[in-house]
Amino acid sequence: MFDFNYFTPTKVVFGKNAESHVAELIKEFGGTKILIHYGGGSVVRSGLLKRVTDILDAAGIGYVTLGGAVPNPHLGLVYEGIELCKKEKVDFLLAVGGGSAIDSAKAIGYGLANEGDVWDFYDYKRTAEGCVPVGVILTIAATGSEMSDSSVITKEEGLVKRGYSSDYGRPKFAIMNPELTMTLPDYQTACGCTDIMMHTMERYFTQGGNMEITDALAEGLLRTVKKNAVILRDNPKDYDARAEVMWAGSLAHNGLTGCGNDGGDWMTHKLEHELGGLYDVAHGAGLAAIWGSWARYVFKNCLPRFKRFALNVMEVENAGSDEDIALRGIEAMEDFYRSINMPTNLRELGVTATEDDLVLMAHKCAVGVGGEMGSARVLNEQDMLNIYRASM
Amino acid sequence: MFDFNYFTPTKVVFGKNAESHVAELIKEFGGTKILIHYGGGSVVRSGLLKRVTDILDAAGIGYVTLGGAVPNPHLGLVYEGIELCKKEKVDFLLAVGGGSAIDSAKAIGYGLANEGDVWDFYDYKRTAEGCVPVGVILTIAATGSEMSDSSVITKEEGLVKRGYSSDYGRPKFAIMNPELTMTLPDYQTACGCTDIMMHTMERYFTQGGNMEITDALAEGLLRTVKKNAVILRDNPKDYDARAEVMWAGSLAHNGLTGCGNDGGDWMTHKLEHELGGLYDVAHGAGLAAIWGSWARYVFKNCLPRFKRFALNVMEVENAGSDEDIALRGIEAMEDFYRSINMPTNLRELGVTATEDDLVLMAHKCAVGVGGEMGSARVLNEQDMLNIYRASM
Lengths: 392, 392
Prior knowledge:
The structure is a homodimer.
Chain A: E1 4-14, H1 22-28, E2 33-38, H2 42-45, H3 48-59, E3 62-66, H4 75-88, E4 92-97, H5 99-113, H6 119-122, E5 134-138, E6 150-155, E7 160-165, E8 173-176, H7 186-204, H8 212-234, H9 239-251, H10 267-278, H11 283-298, H12 303-312, H13 322-339, H14 346-349, H15 355-368, H16 381-390
Parallel strand pairs in A: 1-8, 2-3, 2-4, 4-5, 5-8
Antiparallel strand pairs in A: 6-7
C-alpha cells in the first residue's frame, strides 16, 4: 500500500434540471463576468445554450461565448479564448459540453492566471501557480474532466497532444443532468462507457499493492458501467442507466479508484494517444481496439490482478488455472466490447496501418513516455510495437 | 433515484508520517495563528502534540493549545475555545484527535465566524454563514468528521445532544496516518469499526431507489471494514488493516455512500443517542446493541434491501425465502459484532434499564425526531419503545 493524496473539491449538483442552479453556483464561486465555452453546435441545437444564457440574463450575470472546442481540443482556440477573456475582463469560465470544452476551458484558465505562454505547462517546462475558476455543465459522460485535475490539449503544429495536471484546474462545480446525455449518438455513448471503465482499469492493473477498499470500489464501479452500457445500447433514453454511467464517469477519474496504488499502468492510454494522433478515431473506440492486445501481452506479469478482474468484474467461473481464468476474463471483456459495438482490434476500428506506421507509433509512444513505462508490465519500444502488431 | 449534491472539498494526505505536512497545509489554507484543539492526554503522552508543535515552531507558525474535548464534546469547552481564539487572534483551528476534538473545533469555528450564540445553530434557530477553517490530524477512525459536514455538541444543562451540519464546517485538510491509530484500546477500535459501518448502513436501508453504483460502493466498503475489523482484533498493529479502516471511515460518512438515495434511515443512530444520553456508553457499542433489534423490527418492510445486504455484505447462502435470507443476514451481522466483542443487546452493553427508562428514552427520541422518522420503516414512539424493549 502506498501513501496517497486525495482532493476532490468539485461541488457536484446531480439530477434532473440541475442546470437551473448555474447562476447561483457561479455567484457562490465569485464569478461576475463569464466565458461560456462549448464545442460543436449540439448545445446550440438542443437549446441548452439558450437556457443557460436566459438564466444568466435573469441573474444579471454578464457573459461572452466561445464555441468550437473539438475532440483533442486545439491550442489555437485556447489562445483565442485567453485573448477574448482578457479583453472582456472575464473572471469565471463555464464549460458546457464534454471533455473537450472542459479541458480547453482549464487551459484558458491557466493562461489567464499565469504570465507567459500557456503551452509551457503542457510542454512540462513549468507549473501553473493558479487557474481562473472553471465550472461545468456536463453533456457527455466519458473523460471525467468535470472532477479531475487533468486537461489534454493538442498543439496543431506537429499534432503534439499533451496533458497537464494540477489541482488548480479542478472545476469548482459540476452540473450533471443525465437527461442532457440522452441525445448522444450510440457510438459516442459506448465510447464514453469504454473510456470511463478504462480510467479505473488503468489504476487497477498494477504491481503495487492496491488497497482492498479501493479494489472493492473499483470493481463495483466497473460492474455498474458494464451493466448499464448494455442497457443504454438497447434503450438510450433510460434515465437511471444514464445517471449510473454519468456518476461513474466522475468517480472513475477523480482519484477515488486509485487510492493507495502505485500510480497505475496507463499504457493502454499512451498507445491509444498515438493512434489518435495518426488516425481520426474516437478515443474510447481506440482504447477498446488496443486493450485486448495489451492485456494478452502483459497478463502473465500481473496474474493476480487479471485473475481478480476476471472473477470480480467479468464474473467468469472460478475454475481452471489462474492463467485460464485470467484469459477468460480478457475474452469476456472483449465480448463486452463487441456487445456494445466497440472494436477489439485496429481492423474493426477502421484503421489500416502499414508496418511503417506501427514502427512510427511505437517510436513516438516510447519517446513520449521517456523510453519505457507501465505497471502491470513495464513496456519498452519493442513491446509497444509487438502490441500494435498484435492489435492488427 | 433521487437528485443529489456531492461536496467533499477536504484535502486528504494519507500515509506514514503524514503529519509532517501539517505546517505547509496550514499555510496553504491561510492559517497564521493556530488553535490546537485536542481531547484527553493520549496525544500528549504519545508525543504527537510535541511533534506537531515542533513542526509549527520550525515553520514560524504561532499557536495556542486547548485540550479537554471529551466524547460527546461539551458546549462549555466550545465557549472557552471561542474566547481563547478571540483573545489570541486565532485564524485557523487544528483538531488533533477523533470526532470529539473535530466536532468541538467545528463549533468553535462557527462561533468565531458568526455573531451571537453558537448554540443557536445546534438548536436549529438559524444557520451559519461561515466557519473559521478547520484542519485535522486524525487519531481515531470512527466518526468520519474529518471529511463530513456535521458536528455534534452536548449542552451540559439538561444533557441536550444536538448535531449541526453545514458545508462551511467541512475540514480544509485531513491528515491521516494509520500508525497514529495503532495504540487505541481494542474496544475503541471495534467501536470505531461499528460506527463506520453504521454510517453507511444508515444510508443503505432505505425505501428510496439507491443508485446501483452507490450500492456497489457501499457494499464494498462494508465488506472491507468487516474483514479488517477482525484482522485488527487479532493484530492491532496491522498497518494495512488500520489503513483500510481509516480510509473507510472517511468514505462512509462524507456522502459517497448515499448518492441518489432518499436521505437514509438513521433511526439506529437516533435510538442510540438517547441511550448515550442516559448511560455512559460508547457510541459504537450502543449502535451495535440496538441494531439487531431495530433490524428485526423493520426488515419485513424493507425486504429487498435486507436480502441484498445479507447476500452482498454478509455473504450468506442464497437459499430459502427472502425472509429467511434477510434474517440470516441480520444474524450474521450480530455474529460479526460478537466476534469483535461488541454487544448485541443492552445487557451485553452493561445497561440495566427499567421499563420507565425505556419509556422515557422512547419519548425523548420521538420528540427529538419530531414525532416519527425512518426510511426502512417509519417509526413512531410506540415503535421506538418496542425496539428498546426487544433490545433488553
